[in-house]
Structure to design on (236 residues):
């Protein structure tokens, strides 16, 4: 417990940038690696590794891991450079990490409602990162809430959920509007609804967007989101 508390103190020096790691620390099924100082924190879980910290400290922590393939998450370029020293990197997919000030808020114009667990199958069809257990993951995120959508004639046509929530941060994800319903302001309204929830709970809305996803980056910036860091997601 003391090691987790030290890791949290280190990560809470920048609670927005480190929010993914902070969320993972609350999961009991993770292995935590931390320096004595600490100058770095590394978490291993389900074949994934997430990390943040000073380059040489991270290199030392990485040397303690099993010699097998992982999916990595490096929160900043220092962490990414550390991994490159000791890992053969494949399939790097960098993202921009955005936050939105709670002062930027517009009341939604359209009726937005809470999603139901049964909506997970539809959402999974349109998610670009499907896997064998992704429907279960989406259902879990709906149950944990918040998760919102817009329906027309009984059909779910737009939605957004979260990937994780901490005391300080609400991480938006899965935002999608079906093609025939675009340019109606649906993406704006469900995002505003989610941001309103964050504001009411004293949380900052954040989102990770792949650098190649220009339309989503443009939408995020139009809705008041600001880039604050760069993340890397890769195999190695």
């Amino acid at each position: 417990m003391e090691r987790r508390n030290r890791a949290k103190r280190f990560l809470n020096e920048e609670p927005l940038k480190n929010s993914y790691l902070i969320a993972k620390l609350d999961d009991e099924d993770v292995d935590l690696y931390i320096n004595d100082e600490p100058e770095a924190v590394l978490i291993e879980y389900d074949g994934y590794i997430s990390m943040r910290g000073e380059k040489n400290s991270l290199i030392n922590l990485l040397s303690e891991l099993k010699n097998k393939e992982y999916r990595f998450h490096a929160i900043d370029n220092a962490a990414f450079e550390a991994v490159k020293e000791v890992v053969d990197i494949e399939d790097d997919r960098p993202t921009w990490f955005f936050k939105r000030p709670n002062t930027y808020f517009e009341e939604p114009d359209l009726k937005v409602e809470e999603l139901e667990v049964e909506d997970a199958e539809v959402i999974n069809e349109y998610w670009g990162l499907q896997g064998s257990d992704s429907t279960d993951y989406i259902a879990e995120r709906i149950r944990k809430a918040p998760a919102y959508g817009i329906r027309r004639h009984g059909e779910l046509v737009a939605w957004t959920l979260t990937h994780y929530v901490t005391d300080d941060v609400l991480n938006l994800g899965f935002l999608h509007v079906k093609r025939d319903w675009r340019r109606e302001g649906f993406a704006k309204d469900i995002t505003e609804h989610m941001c309103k929830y964050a504001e009411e709970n004293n949380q900052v809305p954040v989102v990770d967007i792949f650098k190649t996803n220009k339309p989503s980056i443009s939408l995020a910036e139009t809705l008041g989101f600001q880039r604050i860091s760069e993340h890397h997601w890769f195999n190695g």
